[in-house]
Design brief:
This protein has about 90 residues and is α+β, with helices and mostly antiparallel strands. Helices cover about 30% and strands about 10% of the residues.
Length: about 90
């Protein structure tokens, strides 16, 4: 580690040591492959939308110009969707 001071700021310079070499010349031993099957991927993707399933559609027609009530209904539905998507 090196430090320097320019009169106003202190600067730290760090080095990260390299680990032990594995068989392929990289650092550390080779880990297991991170690949998944198509079935595993499809299963993970199919479950991602479940949080929003309970949120019904807004199903409204907005007038021109929109009324305060219509804008509030849209804002409320957006809040409902945001809360449903939080995990």
């Amino acid at each position: 580690m090196q430090t320097s001071f320019d009169g106003s700021n202190v600067r730290f310079q760090f080095g990260i040591p390299r680990g032990q070499n594995g068989n392929d010349g990289g650092s550390g031993p080779q880990g297991s492959p991170g690949e998944v099957t198509n079935m595993q991927l499809n299963s993970a993707i199919n479950g991602t939308s479940n949080n929003s399933n309970a949120v019904n559609t807004l199903a409204m027609t907005v007038s021109d110009p929109p009324t305060v009530g219509e804008v509030q209904a849209i804002a409320s539905k957006l809040d409902e969707l945001i809360l449903a998507l939080r995990r």
